Target: DNA/RNA-binding protein Alba-like domain-containing protein
Amino acid sequence: MGVEAVTATGGVEAQKKNRIQVSNTKKPLFFYVNLAKRYIQQHNEVELSALGMAITTVVTIAEILKNNGLAIEKKVSTSTVSMKDENKGRVVLKAKIEIMLGKSDKFDLLMNASNAAPETDTKNKE
Model:
């Protein structure tokens, strides 16, 4: 029983193009951070979603984006989802979190600065 990493492809909830379903086993943390940055650039907001053990990963992604001044927290919702455990054949409840982040006022300025930063660093090292 794993949590799939689905980024707006197929399924009922995937009608939102700015939704990221996070897994704590499929992809590294900064894959999701960079994906969330791209979604914020394209859609001005991103919805991070996770089940069970991946909740801590979603919270970490949101905190990284907020602490770097790239995003503001719009909405946080928690719930439980019933899923069937394939191994035991019974229904289990899983915790679910959804965090909606919006584009901060400084987003474009910070993204442009971070894109220019590697160039200035390499010039200083030479």
